[in-house]
UniProtKB/TrEMBL annotation:
MF (Gene Ontology): calcium ion binding
Signal peptide (UniProt feature, chain positions): none
Protein name: FAT3 protein
Taxonomy of the source species: Eukaryota, Metazoa, Chordata, Craniata, Vertebrata
Subcellular location, principal: membrane
Length: 379
């Protein structure tokens, strides 16, 4: 308890008795009776040979149970193990290299480090740091090319995470960093630590080839990242058909089936090669293991195929389509639970372009808006 607030009353013996009160604040001063605490108690770290002078090796973490003025800032000192001055320790507790290490010269160092707090009298504690010197990278990073498809409604892309680069390195202790060519940073960003790709708002329709690379500190490897942006027209929503798949997750559909199914679907429903198939969105069906894919087909000369025509084509080709993936249903209207005849069921679709869904795998990523299906009985 850091303090008490007491109300004290003085009362005399007269008739009637009179009294007066005063408040007394009692502050409890902290005594510096706790030593700094290292977390963890002892450390192990590695550094690759031939790293430049000043390379960060380790960040010490120290806490103190005393009040703030008896705790930090801490004073760090290397007591033993640094006779040749191979290491430096800055005021923030960061251990850095002071020489270029060679694996053939020495493979291990053990440092005893002291932390001293700011109290009076000062309290100290100690930790041991084992630093291993390992051979420099001998393997280049490997990265999987990534293709990203973004579907958005007419100039209304809000931006967000659109995919993730998957890279590995056979050198166990290598730390991979990702970079994007500077002139592309006005449209995209890449998280340097985990390889996530972020698109900024307002992307135009078209194809973007990103100049991304991954580095292990010695080797730098380019990564093929291609982004396709398709802006949908409002008219498409009036001519959509939904194919419902059975027992498939969005990620599995994107990674395993989308390319093959798109090709098979084009062959099944397109009258001319110049016509365009547009996958508007894919979305799990709530409370089930089913998946809806919303699509429309644009005629090369203008306009769109009518849903009834598409459904007829799909019905005739259903067996062929199911050679790629199992289909649960082909939906134009969805009047389940409504007591009305088919011709009296009205369906409307709405798309929330600011609620994006990103389905990402190692090789392909699909970003699309969330859609809502509203049905009502007109009878």
């Amino acid at each position: 308890i850091s303090g008490y607030s007491l109300v004290i009353q003085a009362r005399d013996s007269g008739t009637p008795p009179l009294s007066s009160s005063v408040t007394v604040n009692v502050d409890i001063s902290d005594v510096n009776d706790n030593s700094p605490v290292f977390t963890p108690a002892n450390y192990t770290a590695v550094i690759q040979e031939n790293k430049p002078v000043g390379t960060s090796i380790l960040q010490l973490v120290v806490t103190d149970k005393d009040s703030f003025h008896n705790g930090p800032p801490f004073t760090f000192t290397i007591l033993t193990g640094n006779e040749e001055e191979e290491f430096t320790l800055d005021p923030h507790g960061v251990l850095r290299s002071a020489v270029i290490f060679k694996h053939m010269v020495s493979t291990e160092y053990v440092l005893c480090v002291q932390a001293k707090d700011s109290g009076k009298p000062q309290q100290v504690s100690h930790t041991y740091i084992q630093v291993r010197v390992i051979e420099e990278s001998i393997h280049k990073p490997t990265a999987i090319p990534l293709e990203i498809f973004i579907v958005t409604m007419e100039d209304d892309f809000p931006g967000g995470v659109i995919g993730k680069i998957h890279a590995t390195d056979q050198d166990v202790y290598d730390v991979l960093t990702y970079t994007l060519k500077s002139e592309q940073k006005s449209l995209f960003k890449v998280n340097s630590h985990d390889g996530k790709i972020i698109a900024l708002g307002g992307l135009d329709n078209g194809k973007y080839v990103l100049n991304v690379s991954v580095s292990d500190g010695r080797f730098q490897v380019p990564i093929d990242v291609v982004v396709h942006v398709e802006q949908l027209l409002q008219e498409m929503l009036h001519n959509t058909v939904t194919i419902r798949f059975e027992n498939v997750s969005p990620e599995d559909f994107v990674g395993l089936h989308m390319h093959g199914f798109r090709r098979t679907l084009r062959n099944a429903v397109l009258s001319q090669k110049q016509d365009s198939l547009h996958i508007i969105s894919i979305q799990p069906v709530a409370g089930s293991n089913q998946l809806d894919m919303l699509f429309a087909v644009q005629v090369h000369s203008g306009g769109f195929y009518k849903p009834a025509y598409l459904i007829q084509k799909l019905t005739n080709a259903r067996r062929h389509l199911e050679n790629v993936i199992r289909i649960s249903a082909i939906l134009e209207k969805n009047c389940s639970g409504l007591d009305c005849q088919e011709q009296h069921c009205e369906q409307s679709l709405s798309v929330d372009s600011h609620s994006l869904m990103t389905y990402s795998t190692a090789r392909i990523s699909f970003v699309c808006p969330r859609f809502y299906r509203n049905v009502r009985c007109m009878c």
